[in-house]
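Bifunctional diguanylate cyclase/phosphodiesterase structure dump, as promised
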Amino acid sequence: MKDPNNTRNTMPRRGSPLWIYFVVAVLAGGAACVVALAGLSGADVDALLGNPLFWILGCFIVFGELRPIITPGSTENNGATTSTTFSFAALLYAGLPIAALLQAVAAATCGILRGRSPHRIAFNVAQYTLSLGAAQLVLMLFGVRATPTSLWVPEGQDLPAIALAGAVYFVCNDTLVGTAIALHERVSLVKALRWDLGYQVLVHLALLGLAPLMVVAMDRSAAFVPLIVLPFIAVYLNASVSVRREHQALHDGLTGLPNRKLLIVRTEEALAEARGARARAAAAAAAAANRSGASRQPGAGAAPRLKGAGEPGRRTGLFLLDLDRFKEVNDTLGHPTGDRLLQLVAHRLTHSVRPGDLVARLGGDEFAVLLPTVRDAAAAREVAARLRAALSEPVRLDGMSFDLEASVGIALFPDHAPDFELLLQRADVAMYEAKGRRTGVEVYSPSKDRNSPARLTMLGDLRRAVDRGELELFYQPKVALHDGQLVGMEALLRWRHPDKGLLEPEHFLPIAEQTYLMRSITQYVVESALAQAAAWWREDLTVQVAVNASGRDLLDTGLTETIEEGLLRRGLPAASLQLEITEKILMNEQAYASDTVTALAALGIPLSLDDFGTGYSSLVRLKRMPVEEIKIDASFVSRITASADDAVIVRSVIDLARTLGLRSVAEGVEDPQTAAAVREMGCDAAQGWHFGRPMDAATATDWLRRRTQRAPEPAA
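structure tokens r here:
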């Protein structure tokens, strides 16, 4: 179960603590190896080459290196090797030079066959040499000096010496490896050793305990050696099956990355350490403040502020990363290509995070990244930006080139959530914010979380408002600029909140659009607008009423039925109602091509394209849809008298509308100067406070009655 995303083959940065440690360990191991081999005499070499036992031992040591007993929840990189039994037996039987030489050859052979980097191979050779050398020193203290020409077979009274030598070998070997892991993962040595200490003690106790039996068997006859090996084969096979099952339970089958279950475990560990670190930092800061306060003399200045005293401890970060447009790859090139792309993404992510960070796959094209320690949101953004940069490198698969992009959401402990579930939920909120705003990376913000307590309270109030009839329609006129004639009235939704007063749509509709409540609100708006239109038409106030529709509404097949039934029930023509949709809806292929749009066109309901200029609509779609007018967004119109660029944009939209045979309506006209400017540009109609503020139904009716009693004048 080789891990394709393992980063330990990456050469440490020159001058880094891990690089320095590797250099020191390799030099020390090399020196120990030279000293050990220097003690070999010619007779020792002849005995080594002529005794088949040493060749058998060498083969077993190589096999043991290639087939380790894997640590549960890990990969072969952390496994306890069965070569330990044979190399320690060689140390007891023939001394350090033979044991070190055989183990060095085995470690180098295994490293080459497994494709390990040279620095890892050199470190492994040095690690074994130093551990065997430490055990040899203990044996020498007890008077044990074995050589190839003077073989040593232990007796019963030698067991304490062997036990102490084995313990020193284990402590030295585990400390050397643990230190390298701690520096690579950027964790404390205590944590690195504690990860699997109990398992390693148990396994090495069995492996080292078999070494004296191996020596006794070798001294009797080489034929006994294979019998000793049989238990190792059984243990290895059973351990492999057990570890494989555990690995499958904790890792993704396609990419080899940790899955959600392992991510939860690692996150909880990181959060526990972060809580402890913050508690210790807070206690230290408080103690320092007390000492400073006690030592301060009257009249002395304030004690210097400790660095980081305001925010004791560290943060833990959780990223949620989702590939953009990955579904298009699957749909176009098939799932096998998509799977290969996911494997490549996993490799790039793993090799782009910091040592010690964890990359997990949650399913589909969704990945999570755990940062056990991170300074602040800015540092987390830097890591996220590095991940996106790594993914943005072009990918070639099946002769085609892909440009990958991803959206990343960031949540931090303790700033945004106290536990894993909330961290993941809020990273998900931030990720969808990044995807919706096309920013790439977003840090969680409570104000943008539709699941935040404040928004959930608002949702409950809104649900009750629909039942209690607290929603109300206001109406704002659209006026023709060339003659002042009324073009129509736009129905604007308001909420008379019992505590917060009159609320405009931006305060509650974004919440409703994410829930089933939007359908009820849309039905209320359509029914109320049609009822008001019917009332005006009965008074010969033939006004077209416009209502706003969301993308969710256009995917609701019941909208057309509601409108058609409402028109028939009140005897109104289809032209009495207009639907306003935002330009961004045209970007949604599903909404654009929905049956609702087709049915509305067949019914004769005209569409108005609202907030034009803020999206990226296709002219082909614009021409094909039953649009009768384009409303130019107020953000451009309100600045045309002060900004030449905005004036150019507005004029271009007006010309475009005229070319397509559509009516142009300027929104946000609030003063005579702006009204005169858009009229001079050739705009057909306008809407804004200059012509009339939003009015409730009664006020709007009075306004219409007064307007019909006098001839309309050209708009100024």
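The radius of gyration is 38 Å.
lmk if u need the other ones
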